[in-house]
Amino acid sequence: MKHFNLEDIENMSNLYRLNLINSVTGYKSAHLIGTVSSEGYENLAVFSSVVHLGSNPALIGIILRPTSVPRHTHSNMKSTGLFTLNAIHKNQIEQAHHTSAKYPATVSEFDQTDLEEEFLGDFPAPFVKGAKIRLGCRFLNAYEIKENDTLLLVSAIEHVFIADQDIQQQDGWLKLENANTVAINGLDGYATTSLLDRYAYARPKKV
Q: How far is CA 21 from each of CA 4, 17, 46, 87, rounded to the nearest angstrom?
């Protein structure tokens, strides 16, 4: 078994350490976040740091890397307060990954990929056409994580759109494999998943 201690980790090359630490914690959710600036410029970016924070109220968290460089998604969230969260479909992964390229704020990633924007109802931020699970969210607050100069962005889920493809089960639960959504391994690996089993709520065994 390989073993890396703290000294080993600190002495790794940046790329090797990045690949190791980003993949060692396991699969992460894969989403495209759609925003629009106050000037009307659309932005689309791939994120693998979306986490569930609570269901009542319905909240999500997003970890944002240091803002020492421009972060258009964050800027747009702050200026308009609204954004979309689109689960990446397995047929979208190549185009979705390209949204991580660094374009100017005035250039829309929708124009640089084959991904298409779609507006639902009166929600002003762009959704991704073809995504089977889509959320309309409102940015609420940002909390600084001092240890590495990142931010935890807390947002409320205000709209949920689910394709009618036997994705949602009778109890509300989503069978994600029916939506053909993918997970991210590290920064650049994409994988499909398959449900192994689902269990009832666990209760202590009788002693």
A: 11, 6, 19, 23
Residue with tokens 């397995």, as numbered in its chain: 90
DSSP state of 181: B
Taking Cα atoms as reference points, which of 35, 34, 55, 4 lies closest to residue 130?
A: 34
pLDDT tens for the 207 residues of the chain, in order: 999 999 999 999 999 999 999 999 999 999 999 999 999 999 999 999 999 999 999 999 999 987 666 689 999 999 999 999 999 999 999 999 999 999 999 999 999 999 999 999 999 999 999 999 999 999 999 999 999 999 999 999 999 999 988 999 999 999 999 999 999 999 899 999 899 999 988 999 887
